[in-house]
Amino acid sequence: MSHFSIEFFPAKTDVGAEKLREVARRLGTLGPEFFSVTYGAGGSTRDRTLGTVKDVLALGYDVAPHLSCIGDSKEEVGDLLDLYHSLGVKRIVALRGDLPSGMGRGLGELPFAADLVRFIRERHGDHFTIEVAAYPESHPQSPDLASEVKHFVAKANAGANSAITQYFFNADCYFHFVERVRAAGCDIPVIPGIMPITNFANLVRFSDACGAEIPRWIRKQVASFGDDSVSIQQFGEEVITRLCRQLLDGGAPGLHFYSMNLAEPTQALWKNLGLPLAQ
Length: 279
Ligand code: FAD
Fold this sequence. Notes:
The chain is α/β, with parallel strands linked by helices and 279 residues long. It has helices spanning 14-28, 46-58, 74-87, 113-124, 145-158, 171-183, 200-210, 216-224, 229-249, 264-273; strands at residues 3-8, 34-37, 63-68, 91-95, 129-134, 162-167, 190-194, 254-258.
C-alpha cells in the first residue's frame, strides 16, 4: 500500500480553525491515509493541537498528532498519550522537538525521540502506529551522516513503524539516505516530506532554521521573478512535481505533504502526479 499523508499546523484563532476545517474537507476528498497535526515542543500548542486533532477526527479522517518529548516529564507525555488513546487516535508522530529559547526546561525524562518511542510502546503496546522523523540532509545537530543513520536506526529498533523526512529539493540525498539505512539493517518505510514552494521568503527562513538546502538554481530562478507571485507558484509547482515523480519512480513508498494549511498547492501536486482520489 502507498502512503500519502498531509500535514497541518494548529490554527491560532477560531476563524483560523474554521478555515482549517474547510481545508481539511477539501483535502479529505483526495483520500490521504491520514492528516498529521504539529505540536509545539514543551507543550506550547498542547490545547490547539488537541483542538485540531478533534476537528479532523470529527470530520471522519484518521489523524496522527505530533508529540514531542524534550523538556517534558513522563507523566506529562503519558497523560497526553492516554487522552489520544481515549479519543480513538491510532497513530502518533513521535519527535524529540526543539525547546523554544528561554523556556527554562532541561532535557526532561525523555531526551531523544528513541526514548519517546520506547515509552509509547511500554505504555500502550502496539496500539499506536509510530512515525518518526528522518533527515536525508542530516539533522543540524548531527556531526555526520553515520551518526544520523545510527540514531535513526535506534528509533526503528525502539519500535517505530515508519518515518517521514524533513523536506529537501534534491532526490539523490533521499535515495542515498535510504541506502545507508538499509545497509544498517533497517527496513522501515521512509516517506519523503514534500514542501510546496508557495511563499518563498518564508521558505528561505524555515530552510535556514531546519538545515534544508535550497539549490542555487532554484534561488536564482525565483529571484528573477521578483514580485511576480504567479510565476513563482507556477515554477514551484513544476519543480516539486518533478521531484515527487523522481522519488516515486525511484521507489519511494509514498509522500507526506507539508500543506502549510492551504488546500491548493497539495491538490495541484496530487493532480499533476495522477494520485488516486478517495473512493
Ligand atoms: P531525535 O531523533 O532524537 O534526534 C535529534 C538529534 O539528536 C539528531 O541530531 C540525532 O542524530 C541526535 N541523537 C539522537 N539520539 C541520540 C543519542 N542517544 N545520543 C546523541 N545524539 C543523539 N518539531 C516540533 O517541535 N513539533 C513538530 O510537530 C515537529 N514535527 C516534525 C515533523 C517531521 C516530519 C520532521 C522531520 C520534523 C519535525 N519537527 C517538529 C522537528 C523536530 O522536532 C526537530 O528536528 C528536532 O530537533 C529533532 O527531533 P527528532 O525527533 O528528529 O529527534
